[in-house]
Design brief:
Layout (H helix, E strand, L loop, with lengths): L1 H7 L1 H6 L17 E5 L3 H12 L3 E6 L3 H10 L8 H7 L2 E4 L6 H10 L8 E4 L10 H4 L4 E7 L9 H4 L4 E5 L5 H10 L3 E4 L5 H28 L5 H19 L7 H4 L2 H14 L1 H20 L5 H11 L32
Parallel strand pairs: 1-2, 1-3, 3-4, 4-5, 6-7
Antiparallel strand pairs: 5-6
Helix pairs in contact: 3-4, 13-14, 13-15, 14-15
Length: 345
């Protein structure tokens, strides 16, 4: 289906790609007309980036007033239209809507006769690959999943954040050169992700970035509660160092009472957090258990240290989860320390 669409697309000739082997004879795609369906932070940012690369943004869709204002400011002069009209105007249709909205949007465009044949249809969801675009692909669209691995604030400097970042790319073999070229033109680096791995890929990113924000904000609230007037100033050097250690060293960069096996200190943390913020205590318990498992697997603490830590972390609101370190008495198992009962790294 995709190969046939590639051969018959009127835009493909302009791109100077060989539909038989998927190879590009040009350094970049031809200048494309682009419609952005969803003028949120991501949609507007990528629209600006494509315009800076020489493509022409010809239409945008926006539902809320905030989205309309954003589009007017960042993409001045680009008309705001309905999705079907936006699709008809462009050779590249950029779908930048929330994950849960994407399947319905694609199905709706296909079912109501939007002009999709021969057009490149790109979505920016981290969760989905190209399978979610199947209704459009069946109508002759050329499907791509290009997920920018970055957080956007809606500020004008979001475009600069694209410089050098990775994009999680899923594409049919015939369209990989197109995906690669578009990502590079926006200043990014393509990282190809298999269709079946998209959800796990996205979960890893969300855990690292989104949960980090919640943890840091919660820590800031706790520090204000003990009189720290500027929690950001207090946390900043520590957090930058911890992030650098994590990225460079992995588990070898673990520090702190759990990684040292200081069970008494951890017990005191659990106690005071229970009084100050039960949600913070629940998060601490879950992450301390995760940290204990990784520290054990990395050889940073002994099974005996882990026994003591698990004892103080075994409170009613911390039920056992798959992948937790084995319960006390089983850590040495039939294979000895670090044997088959060792938690995954």
């Amino acid at each position: 289906m995709v190969r046939q669409a590639v051969r018959t697309s009127k835009y493909w000739d302009e791109m100077d790609f060989d539909a038989n082997d998927g190879q590009s004879a040009a350094a970049h795609p031809a200048r494309l007309t682009v419609s952005v369906i969803g003028a949120g932070r991501v949609g507007v940012t990528l629209g600006v980036a494509l315009a800076k690369a020489g493509h022409e943004v010809v239409a945008v869709t926006a539902v809320s007033q905030a989205s309309r204002d954003r589009a007017a400011e960042r993409l001045p002069g680009v008309p705001v239209t309905e999705p079907h009209e936006a699709a008809a105007r462009a050779s590249l249709i950029l779908l930048c809507v929330p994950d849960d909205t994407l399947p319905g949007l694609v199905a709706g465009l296909a079912a109501t006769g939007a002009e999709l044949s021969g057009r490149i249809v790109v979505h920016t969801s981290g969760r989905y690959g190209t399978g979610v675009l199947q209704p459009a692909t069946e109508r002759g669209a050329l499907p791509l999943a290009l997920h920018p691995v970055m957080t956007f604030t809606g500020r004008p400097d979001d475009v600069q954040r694209l410089d050098g970042i990775s994009f999680g790319v899923t594409a049919p073999d015939e369209l990989r050169p197109v995906a690669e070229a578009l990502v590079i033109e926006m200043g990014g680096e393509p990282v190809f992700i298999r269709e079946a791995d998209r959800a796990l890929y996205h979960a890893a990113l969300a855990s690292a970035a989104n949960h980090l924000v919640a943890l840091v904000a919660e820590a800031g609230d706790l520090l204000r509660g003990v009189g720290a007037a500027n929690p950001g100033r207090l946390l900043s050097p520590l957090l930058y160092a911890a992030l650098d250690n994590a990225l460079r060293l992995g588990d070898a960069g673990l520090t702190g009472p759990v990684a040292r096996g200081d069970a008494d200190t951890v017990a005191r943390h659990v106690e005071v957090l229970g009084a100050a913020s039960p949600p913070a205590r629940r998060a601490y318990l879950a992450l301390a258990r995760l940290t204990a498992g990784r520290a054990l697997a990395a050889g940073l603490i002994t099974p005996q240290d882990t026994h003591r830590l698990l004892d103080v972390l075994a409170v009613p609101d911390a039920p056992a989860l798959p992948g937790d370190p084995a319960p006390p008495g089983d850590l040495d198992g039939p294979d000895g320390p670090g044997g088959r009962n060792e938690p995954p790294a």
